Amino acid sequence: MLQTVIMENSYQDSINLMLLSNKLSDMQGVNKVSIMMGTPANKTIFKGTGLYTPELEKAGPNDICIVIDSDSSEDASPNSQGNNIVDAVMAEVKEFLANLATKKSGTSIRVTRSWTSSMKALPDANLALISIPGVYAAEEAKKALDRGLNPFIFSDNVALEDEVNLKKYASEKGLIVMGPDCGTGILDGVPLAFANVVRKGNIGIVAASGTGLQEVSTIVHRSGYGVSHAIGTGGRDLSAEVGGITAIAGLKALAADDETKVIVLVSKPPAKVVRDKVVEVLRAIPKPVVAIFMGEKGGVPMQNITFASTLEQAGLMAVKALETLSPACELPKVNLEKVKASKGRHRIFGLYAGGTLAAEAAFILTEGFAGEESHNHIDGVYLELDGHRVIDFGDDKYTQGRPHPMIDSRYRVETLQELAENKDVSIIIFDLVLGYGGSMDMAGEMAKGIEHARAIASKDGREQIYIASMCGTDEDPQGYDDQKNKLLAAGVLIEDTNAQAVNRALTLFYQLTGDKQDITASEKVLDLLKNGPKVVNAGLSSFTDAIKKHGGTVVQFNWAPVAGGDARLAEILSKLV
Question: How buried is 445 (Cβ within 10 angstroms: 0-12 exposed, 13-18 middle, 19+ buried)?
Answer without folding.
Answer: middle
